[in-house]
Amino acid sequence: MQAIEALRQTVTEPGRDLRLNIQSVLEGTSLSTAQKWGVAVASAIAARNPALRRAVLDDATPAVDPAVVDDARAAASLMGMNNVYYRFRHMVGKPSYTAKAPRLRMNWMAKPLGAKADFELFCLAVSAINGCETCVKSHEKVVVDAGITEEQVHDAVRIAAAVAGMAIALEAGS
Fold this sequence. Notes:
By secondary structure, the chain is mainly α.
């Protein structure tokens, strides 16, 4: 984790908790290597901090199959769209909107390059960052039904939270 470590060192004292959390959530986890890095990559993309995204990608790329990185990129992109759409439907709460077909392409969701459950876990992490209750509930159910444990879900969301917080600490100049 050389790139993330170098970036961590730029975070000053007000961001100390994030500097420590980003390290601990990536080191101590119940997730597989592919799950950990897929969640981290998708979360870093969703957090929209270029330096953090680059550092996570630099550390993830040699650690996992390129399919994991591509699935994470697709998860971040698709959830960037879906979280807006489904959050709108949820917030408005009108059955007339719920009855309408989204008519938004989501083919990658049906056929990710790697494990379907892992892709859904990446989507769950991004949905948590983006605050879409409907998507969080949907993806959590899919991953648990696929055999991913609640401990693994918890670890994935902890990674997403620490990555999102780290992005803010970097933006704040902490």
